[in-house]
Amino acid sequence: MLSPTGMKATMITIVLALLAMFPPLATDMYLSAMEPLAEAMNTSSAGAELSLSLFFLGLCVGQLIVGPMIDVAGRKGPLLIGVAVFTLASIGLLLTDNIVVFNTLRFVQALGACAGMVVGRAVVTDLYEGRRAAQVMTVLVMLMTLGPILAPFLGSLLLTLLGWRSIFVALVLVGLFALVLTQVVIHETLPADKRNKAAIGGTLRRLAGLCRTPAFILPALVTACVQASIFAFITGSSGVFQGAFGLSSQAYGLLFGLIASAMVIFGQINTWLLNRYEPEQIVAWGLPLFVLTAALLLGVSGTSVLWVLVVPLWLSLGLVGLLSANVMSIAMAGAAGAAGLGSAGIGALQFGLAFATSTLVALAGTGSAGPMATAILVSASTGWGAWLVFRRLCGVVSPAQ
């Protein structure tokens, strides 16, 4: 395994992080524009909000398509196709006035957006092993976190200054920029002699076999549980801080960014810890802390004092930044020899659970912090339970057979 070093490695990581930011940019940037979008499309708020659900569905389905594809056709070709699909769909979203066409294009846009996430995880697995893979994955997660931190602010700014269509102009420009960078910076990391030549039936059997491999599926479940906490926060935060605490949209945006910044800070701490400890060691003590802070968050969820709620929430999401890359690298190691399938499985599980978590928080009501805090605690506890089972069954990570 020949790993890139220096400036070349840095550029590859930056481009992969940019590609992985497509989903948060494409969702969080236009959340503030739902009402004017619905008016422009002559539809209800529910019709406009359906575009968000269809986007998540597209991310789930798309990863199951892209994952097997990149094990057969290599990494770079499918990645370029995905970025092109994302960009073309963004152009269509900019031009249409029909809500049915808009929602359909949002699904297509998600199919393209998922390529960066799937290929990014596979490329890291192609190029790095062990601690180094976890370190690079940590950098990716930290840079990806800039998406949900910056996207709501950028979206509201564009909406105020130029209208809702300017948000999709920005997505088109991001897509074109990423297309150029991908062509120039990213090289093929899966040689032709290592590609899977199996037919679709064989690919499905390999995916089923991978899902029966404890060394893969259990840490993949932990990854999905940890990430589900972010979606519980995204879904519930507006109702909690703007509804229950009465913050303005500007104050909410700043507080959202402050809380999300915890993932970047803890990600940097994780980079330092990886110089001394293995990813498994960090996860082993990080998950109990995650459960503890989530329990504390639920315990104070009825408070009327803002900072009392924010502190445990900040710590909980910070631990998401500490844990995500480590568990993801462990799961990808368990998918050795099937990095594309493994990446697709992780992504599909992650967004499937995220969709369920987000829906349940929304149905429970976002006027108080209780549903959000409960969802975070349940996710953290389930993830810890899956990790304990993984350690009992596997002991140490072993490649999927």
Structure characterization notes:
By secondary structure, this protein is mainly α. The protein has helices at residues 6-20, 22-28, 34-40, 45-73, 76-95, 99-127, 130-162, 165-185, 200-211, 214-244, 249-273, 279-299, 306-334, 339-364, 370-394. Helix 5 packs antiparallel against helix 8 (165-185), helix 7 runs antiparallel to helix 11 and helix 10 packs antiparallel against helix 13 (306-334).
Write out key terms for the chains shown.
401 residues; 15 helices; 82% helix; disordered C terminus
Which secondary structure elements does this structure contain, and how are they paired or packed?
Elements: H1 6-20, H2 22-28, H3 34-40, H4 45-73, H5 76-95, H6 99-127, H7 130-162, H8 165-185, H9 200-211, H10 214-244, H11 249-273, H12 279-299, H13 306-334, H14 339-364, H15 370-394
Helix pairs in contact: 1-6, 1-7, 1-8, 2-7, 3-4, 4-5, 4-6, 4-14, 5-6, 5-8, 6-14, 7-11, 7-13, 10-13, 10-14, 10-15, 11-13, 12-13, 12-15, 13-14
